[in-house]
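Batch job 17 of 40 flagged for manual review because the log was empty.
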Amino acid sequence: MKTEAIEWDVEALLAALEACLRLQIQTRRLKNPLIVGIHTGGVWIAEDLSRRLGNPPEAIGRLNISFYRDDFSRIGMHPEVRPSQLPSTEDRDVILIDDVLYTGRTIRAALDELFDYGRPRQVVLGVLIDRGGRELPIQADCAGARIELAEGVRIKLKGPKPLRLELSS
């Protein structure tokens, strides 16, 4: 498998995502939104965004969707499955964060788990990279960048410090 680092400025992608989320917070009138990151890359981004938006990084929710995936029986148990850390989402505004949006299946699984913690008032989806290729009708409200990649090419966020993007095929 060939892997290469991408020359994108992750800091600029985070700034673009932050700006879009600030606009969403204002226009959708989010009140004290709970920032929730999807394990692992989404959590790294959520921690950074929480700080940028003036919230303490320890106040974010962390979702591990391993048991909610629709391909669980095919991929099996990941050796580092950890429980989610999330307060009640009942009637809360939630900002759900992931690193890469591709087929939509990860987000579907995250929404399933999120609703196990209560019924959110509304959910805003923010991703660092939206690479297209949806298999489910899921769309990000905010993205650091929207890109097209050839089929079979994967993009992965590596980190946590420094955050960098890698392609593999």
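Reviewer: the log was empty due to a logging misconfiguration, but the result itself is present. The longest helix spans residues 10-27. Unflagging and moving on to job 18.
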